[in-house]
Amino acid sequence: MTTATTAHRVDVELGERSYPVHIGAGVRHRLAGVLDRLGVRKAVVVSARPRALLPETGLPTLHLPARDGEEDKSLATVERMCRAFAEYGLSRADAVVSVGGGTTTDSVGLAAALYHRGLPVIHLPTTLLAQVDASVGGKTAVNLPQGKNLVGQYWQPSAVLCDTDFLDTLPEREWRNGYGEIARAHFIGTGDLRGRPLVEQIAASVACKAGIVAADERDASLRHILNYGHTLGHALERASGFALRHGEAVAIGTVFAGRLAGALGRIDEARVAEHEEVVRDYGLPHRLPAGLRDADLVALMRLDKKAMTDLSFVLSGPEGPELVSSVPEEVVVRVLAEMPREAREN
Q: For residue 288, what is the DSSP state?
């Protein structure tokens, strides 16, 4: 395991709102120093992890329990947090800390963005998925029954502490959940991370995202490429009732994105095959689940936030990945029909 003395640092360069991302074992214990540099008076720590694992803040602190999971990623959860902030007397001179997976990071980040029109927030992501993706970049959101992440705000953290010690007890499926995002990062600029030490895989994924966010903080153009594999991925999550985890769905979506790019003549057969090869090398699912109707998946993909007028996907091409709008539905349907599928259980 990488030690704290060899921790990596990646800076998200956003002018006055720039912040560091520290990656390595033990970096959560830098929290008190981060809060001290911010000059805050007290803090609220919202945590989906046991109190014994939490670092000291060095300040008067209210601890609020949280639960990771899509069912708690809601406006009701955000309201409960904001009410607790108010009862504790939190002000703009104070800070909020999130400790948990991506759903906790998203909902706590949104609560921090909304309460008093914005408080400093520090993220301590505790899953691989949250460390390589959700905790960095300032996107905060919760779900509605109509779709994922439909209510949100851009609110950059003051710091992110990706402590790899938190990952020691992750179940196997949570590792796959994170590696789904690392696999898709292969196609948006990290290069091949297979076989590299974990801390380097995390740091490379964060550095890739940091560069994209610095160039396009609010999703006007370049930042769209972070959604590689996500259009079908989000549809699969919803169609499966979230039985598929986010990273698993994104992995399948990445295979689909390669096949769709090939069908549109944007990449050659070798690059199409590389999508499935990378996904499988990370031990990730590459087949569509049994029992899901293609028509339902297409309807859900139309709800994607990038789809301003019609079906839109982030796809590889001669100039690299880019957002491709108005993809013909008949091509999408044909590629879905040709995807490998899990066998139905008898």
A: B
CB 159 within 8 A of CB 34: yes
From the list 199, 99, 137, the residue with the least C-alpha distance to 12 is 137
pTM for this prediction: 0.92
Task: Read off the pLDDT of residues 120-158 as tens digits, 9 standing for 90 and up.
Answer: 999 999 999 999 998 999 999 999 988 788 899 999 999
Which residues fall within 8 angstroms of residue 118, CB to CB, at 6 or more apart?
A: 92, 112, 155
Identify whether the C-beta of residue 269 lies closer than 8 Å to the C-beta of residue 255.
no
Which of 209, 210, 183 shows the shortest CA–CA distance to 282? 183
Q: Is the dihedral of CA 275, 276, 278, 282 positive or negative?
A: positive
Choose among 168, 129, 166, 123: nearest CA to 21: 123
The distance in angstroms from the start CA to the end CA of the chain is 43
- 233 vs 231: CA distance, rounded Å: 5
Beta bridge partners of 61: 43
CA-closest candidate to residue 129, choices 258, 278, 279, 248? 248
b/e map 300-322, b = 16+ CB within 10 Å: bbeebbbbeeebbbbbbeeeebb
Size of the chain in residues: 346
Q: And the tokens for 281?
A: 């090398």
193 and 187 Cβ atoms separated by less than 8 Å:
no
